[in-house]
Amino acid sequence: MATVMRSSEKKKSVPANDDATAIAVDGPPLDHDAPFMGESHQRYFKNKLLAWKAGLLEDVNGTREQLREGPMREPDATDRASSETDWSIELRRRDRQRKLVSKIDAALRRLETGEYGYCLVTGEPIALARLDARPIATMTVEAQERHERNEKLTRED
């Protein structure tokens, strides 16, 4: 017999910290009716980018602390190999996060110069929904798709 969980008992799925959509933004929600990249949009995206960066840096610092605690002391070779594999995966993840922090910094610089929210290829505004989901986006969906198609064609050569 299956057990039915009440909605208040259901487990909530928590997205990973490197997911921009999981970052809570202090202040009012994104105002879709405000002028594109006006003051309210700039403030919203700056807060979102800064909160995302802070979360990533907090994770990185946690990994540093774990590394400082000392080497692995697994007595069994199989356990040691498993631990080394886990650390390798974790370090690759941290490297991706480091690169993501660089992209966040670049987005913050574009915000300061007034270039944020506009496609680097076409100069057209990037949809707010896309920026909200991927605040480091530098291209419209159409330009990104063209870029990926061209990239795929050049890889196949």
From TrEMBL:
Xref: Gene3D superfamilies: DksA, coiled-coil domain (1.20.120.910)
Zinc finger extent (dksA C4-type): 119-143
Domain Zinc finger DksA/TraR C4-type intervals: 114-149
Region (Disordered): 1-35, 63-85
UniProt keywords, alphabetically: Metal-binding, Zinc, Zinc-finger
Record InterPro entries: DksA_N, DksA_RNA_pol-bd, DnaK_N, Znf_DskA_TraR
Molecular function terms, GO-annotated: zinc ion binding
Superkingdom of origin: Bacteria
Coiled coil: none
PROSITE patterns attached to this UniProt entry: ZF_DKSA_2 (PS51128)
Descriptive protein name: RNA polymerase-binding protein DksA
Source species: Parasphingopyxis marina
Lineage: Bacteria, Pseudomonadati, Pseudomonadota, Alphaproteobacteria, Sphingomonadales
Gene from which the chain derives: dksA
